[in-house]
């Protein structure tokens, strides 16, 4: 059995390391959160235990002795070994990158991140909010949430997250001011807020089928265009007009009273939200956990489509993106 050698105080060695770095008792004391006198006392005690001086103390300077210069190398390597050993006991968080559209990130994912982090503290989730196609190799993306319809690319697994059911929403204050837009005359008072999907023509055709057949559909007084659905939703909350959005994206705003659903009509536009991953993900367990959490947090009131089926609520063509 090896003989255990008596070691100097580990606290004194830590103080020695900090003083050697600063060559100043005051700065060392500030870093350690103790008094300058306590630092000096630890150094004197260590010197007494070792039986040699570690610092030459001048009137305005502090320099290390030759013995200290040799000793500090051993001490720092020892601390590094302790740090490495300690780190090995704490598993590194599993880094996952999820690529989502900016509107999905702003209106659905970010408000729920606290719940995800509580449920999966070992997963370090990194969010890439972009409308670009996800590149699972160059961008190191592990999972993407995109609007689209099967089939997706070769080598990818896609699972339906939620059907995109588009509804019209407005702020309660605006509806109170202009009246509900169910009639053509009232609808004509409302500015229409467009995003880049531009579902308004198909939506109005469905909501006012009788009027469009007769050519009596009133024109909106103003059209405002945004490049993101989230911006159109925020504009609707601010009372600037009517916006179209996926119902699950505006659920929280409706429940909080910031928005109300108007016009009653619903439109399934032919593309839905899918979770998409490589067929052989780099971190299969973590990806499966993230995918399960996403699916579990889509409210049950939102319909999902079977792989072969669809809602007969009207369809318009749309480009598949992922």
TrEMBL record:
Q: GTP-binding: is it a keyword of this entry?
A: no
* Region listing for Disordered, in residue ranges: 300-322
Alphabetically sorted, this entry's keywords are: DNA-binding, Transcription, Transcription regulation
Q: Which domain of life is it from?
A: Bacteria
Q: Name one Pfam family in it.
A: LysR_substrate
- InterPro entries per the record? LysR-type_TF_proteobact-type, LysR_HTH_N, LysR_subst-bd, WH-like_DNA-bd_sf, WH_DNA-bd_sf
> Which Gene3D superfamilies does its entry note?
Periplasmic binding protein-like II, Winged helix-like DNA-binding domain superfamily/Winged helix DNA-binding domain
> What range(s) does the HTH lysR-type domain occupy?
8-65
Kindly indicate whether the keyword Transcription regulation belongs to this entry. Answer: yes
Which family does this protein fall into?
Answer: Belongs to the LysR transcriptional regulatory family.
What protein name is recorded for this chain? Answer: LysR substrate-binding domain-containing protein
